[in-house]
Amino acid sequence: MNLFVSRHRILAPRASLILLLGLGLIFAACSPEKKPRIRTVSQSEIVESLGKDNGLFLLDVRTPAEFKRGHIPGAVLIPVAEILARLDELRENAGEREIVIYCETGGRAMRTASTLLDQGFDNVAHDSVSTFCFSIEPPPMISRVRLSQGTAR
After folding, report:
1. Three-state secondary structure call for residue 76
2. Which residue, among 76, 78, 84, 39, has the nearest Cα to 61 in the 3D structure?
3. How far apart are CA 131 and CA 138, in angstroms?
């Protein structure tokens, strides 16, 4: 009987350690993956990329009416309400370029960026002033480039 008790006293701590390590591995494997970070892009980066074929892909997620009032030259309009329905189009048009999302105040841009990360996009950013309050006056860096006026795409 003493031999039985002494063996279990030695095995019990080992079994507990093995159980804890096993549970730790299970929890680590089941934990959600970390999303890539959403990078903040400065006005100067946007201005520098304008007109470059391999520059930033500028995604305007405002409404067509907001877009018509003014937008960054070369920006593509996909209103936030249409993002999920137009993911294939976005993948095709953006290619490997970083997607910089902007809107009027930043809320729609951040929600869209998060949605795109959830949908497998990993090269997503938003502008640092989100956005350029087009109906009032664009920031100095952008106004030097001259905002495009025109219809939504």
Report:
1. strand
2. 78
3. 8
The 10 Å CB-count burial string (b at 16+, else e) for 9-24 is eeeeeeeeeeeeeeee
Reference 115, options 131, 94, 101; nearest CA is: 101
d(CA 112, CA 145): 26
List of residues 6+ apart from 117 with CB closer than 8 A:
35, 36, 38, 124
Contact 147, 73 (CB under 8 A): yes
pLDDT tens, position by position, 96-152: 999 999 998 888 999 999 999 999 998 999 887 655 543 334 444 444 444 444 444
- CB distance 50 to 146 below 8 Å: no
pTM over 0.85: no
- Alpha helices, DSSP H only, in the chain? 2-30, 43-49, 64-69, 87-94, 107-118, 140-145
d(CA 133, CA 32): 37
Number of alpha carbons in the 13 Å side-chain half-sphere of residue 79: 10
52, 53, 63, 65, 138 from 70: Cα distances, Å: 20, 22, 11, 9, 9
